[in-house]
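User: For a reading group we're discussing how well predicted structures match intuition. Take Molybdopterin molybdenumtransferase. Before you show the prediction, I'll give you the sequence so everyone sees exactly what went in.
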Amino acid sequence: MSENGAGRAPRDTTALDLRSGATVDPPTSPRLPVHATAAIDRGAVPPPRTLAEPEPPAPRTVEAHLDEILAAVPQPEPIELAVLDAQGLLCAEDVVSARALPAFDQAAVDGYAARAEDVAGATPDAPVELAVVGETVAGAAVPTALAPGLTQRVATGAMLPTGADVVVPGVWTDGGMVRVQVHAGVEPGSWVRRAGDDVSPGTSAVTVGTPIGPAQISLLAAVGRDRVQVRPRPRVAVLSAGTELVDITTQPAPGQVVDVNTYALAAAARDAGAAAYRWGILPTERRRLTEVLESQLLRSDLVLIAGTFSADGDMVQEVLAELGPMRFRQVTMHPGPLQGFGRLGRDDVPVICVPGEPVAALVSFEVFVRPAIRSMLGKRQLFRRTVQAISAERLLSPLGYRQYLHGQVMRHPDGGYVVEPLGGGDEALLARMARANCLIVVDEDVTEVAEGGLVTVMPLLLGG
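Assistant: Thanks. Here is the predicted 3D structure of Molybdopterin molybdenumtransferase, as structure tokens, for the group to look at:
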């Protein structure tokens, strides 16, 4: 992504470097003022080290952490579902039709079945007149034949009489019941659906990897399939960790906060296509905590935990480590640089830990969890589509960290997009996030985007 574009002010590198906690001030660059969009997560700044302490591991890039997750998430085995229950999933089999669609030659429009040679050359000024011999409607019918110079009234979907090779739409006639005047000639085969035109026996009606929507359900029903093999929705358990948390039905005491993460993350997982369920707040008693985590590993394809995890570890991190290789790392992103991932339990179930701060939790979901769920669903498009937009304001970003800012993106009257970052120091973060329709992504090596500069924008479309 370009910084500010040609002709704009050069990137100002006076910014906080979150990897070292120090400021970087080139002699020729003025110091930038503090800006709301350049706020940092103080948990990302390591404490001072003594000479005897080992060098802390370098932060991981967003791509490295995401690649580890995507490489580890399982591909659930296909299951068979009723066609209506398969809606929104990917087909996991080639559905071969044993039937021809349509099963017989039929009329594609209400009108008159005829021979093309009998109506050739008909015009409004010189209509062709034919005798009408009967009428056929959609439904069970005895096959009939049509002699030259005759026509038969037919309804849409009705069986075509033998010998007829066109259907003249009723609006192109005078609508006669005994004799009819045809006001326009039609080419052979016009307004006729031939047997097998849509699907012929032995050919695939729906192929592997096709998303099953209303049209595919219609086709499956037409070829006689009431059940189909699909890639199932991954089962995602959503939990929160923190002694300060209370459920939404409880009035929080001073120092306590409502657990919004299990609700928000479960909703986000469902929007991504998962069968998500929220367990709630993890217990603080160690034995009970272990039991809960073990039970969720047994019933889930992926476990998602939001919590205020520390670099020094806590009881939740200790119990997770007892269940398998679990690692917490600094990731070069903001908000929420501390991320955790491991494969735990007897089935090596992926466990993703995201920050407990609600905005950071949902940003982390977009970056890491949503692509994982879509991978488990077998989707080809794992990531939301991005667009380039003009920033309506100057943006500041911490050096070396990829910044994700909530914003509102809209079409510019002259074409393209313009995005306005949301929020300020006096605005609640949850209210800001609820008003946003996109994330503004500022790359690691960009510390400033001038007003009018181009930025990458990720629209947050429901189900997108």
